[in-house]
Fold this sequence. Notes:
The chain has 122 residues and is an alpha+beta fold. It has four helices and five strands.
Amino acid sequence: MIEKKVLVIIGMILIIGLWLLYSILAPQERLAVLCLEKTESKSDHFIEITEENLNTYPTLKELFRELNSTRNNEILHEVKETKGNEIMDYIISRYREKYDRTWGSFYIKYREEFYWIALASE
């Protein structure tokens, strides 16, 4: 009877040990911060974002909703790095479609307002 209990305890210790080892060594998703800032001035180079575009990128939609529900002109939103890169890749591709190149800063026109967007990652 004791042998069975010992085997069960050893098995549990092995399972917990393997789980802890996996959680420590498994690659963790890196985080990034999307910054969206409402600007007072209009940029000469911008892309226009519609509600339809935002339905494809719900994180971007959430950024606009959060910013417009506060009195701040800027919002910092933590996202998984892959999600942030996906959004910025979309914005860069829209710039390239419109201008055949990109600039260091990215401006968006949404509902007749202008915004600056950037991604900061580790």
